[in-house]
Write a structure and sequence with these properties.
Number of strands: 22
Distance between the termini: 19 Å
Shape: globular
Strand order of the largest sheet: 13-18-17-16-15-19-20-21-22
Radius of gyration: 19 Å
Number of helices: 3
Helix content: under 10%
Length: 270
């Protein structure tokens, strides 16, 4: 394996950049979207997001050059919104949801490459079961994009974590129509031990979840996974160093590029 430098650092070309960005690779262009710091005083919190306005730029892999920075306007000033960026059907999307007091899916935005702007998906339907409120308004929730093979089209999975419940959602997109449905929920108990999922990957009909435990800080546990079967709706714990998940036949079954070990590795790199 070898690495080759194909372009100059963004800061050397674009100047006056934010310190944090989202990124997405689409059609030989590496897009970046600035993330500004936004205070959340009602929740004694703060985060870095793109929906409050910023800029986009891209690196063209063929010409090995950076585009100019183009500003886009604020989409919302709601203090309690969070975002996740993902790709599906050769498009870039930004999903907005509430962060405190439970998960509520609010808006789905699609990146317009020509206009270099975010536009709302016109018909966005969310099943009531996908939203979950908590009694404690200061409870912070999170939403995780499930990494999946690029050949899976028209839908993508998300993991939401509210209190001690892991919930699996499916977002389906057909042109300007999109919907979110709840597939299943998993109560985090003594069986699963994992209290804080941080990443997930899909391989065939299995969803693999990995995370850790909060205590005096956060202890990441790469050896213990939760496996969820989309067909049987059953969940189990996997100790990844057991013979079942290390033998060559199991790895060959899914092939190197689709095996969850490699999908989760790509999540680390991102």
């Amino acid at each position: 394996m070898s690495f080759e430098k194909i372009g100059e650092p963004a800061k050397a070309i674009l100047h006056n950049m934010e310190s944090y960005h989202h990124s997405a690779l689409l059609n030989d262009r590496l897009w970046i979207f600035s993330r500004k710091y936004k205070e959340q005083p009602l929740h004694n919190w703060g985060h870095r997001v793109s929906f409050c306005g910023g800029y986009s730029a891209y690196f063209d892999i063929e010409s090995k050059s950076w585009s100019s920075k183009e500003e886009y306007p604020s989409i919302s000033d709601d203090e309690n919104l969070e975002e996740v960026l993902f790709m599906l059907n050769s498009n870039i999307f930004l999903l907005l949801y509430t962060q405190f007091g439970g998960i509520n899916f609010e808006r789905l935005l699609q990146w317009d490459i020509g206009e270099r702007n975010w536009s709302a998906v016109k018909h966005f339907k969310v099943d009531e079961s996908s939203n979950l409120s908590t009694k404690d308004a200061v409870t912070r929730s999170q939403l995780i994009v499930v990494k999946q093979h690029s050949q899976i089209n028209n839908s993508i999975l998300f993991i939401s974590v509210v209190d001690e419940i892991i919930r699996i959602h499916e977002l389906s997109i057909d042109q300007q129509y999109a919907s979110v449905a709840l597939l299943h929920d998993i109560s985090i108990g003594d069986k699963f031990r994992m209290r804080t999922p941080v990443m997930a990957a899909r391989c065939c009909d299995e969803v693999y979840i990995i995370g850790g435990i909060h205590g005096c800080g956060f202890r990441f546990d790469p050896k213990t996974w939760i496996s969820f079967n989309l067909e049987t709706k059953s969940a189990d714990v996997i100790e990844i160093f057991t013979a079942r998940y290390l033998d060559s036949q199991h790895v060959e079954k899914y092939q190197r590029k689709t095996h969850p070990l490699f999908l989760l590795s790509s999540a680390f790199l991102e």
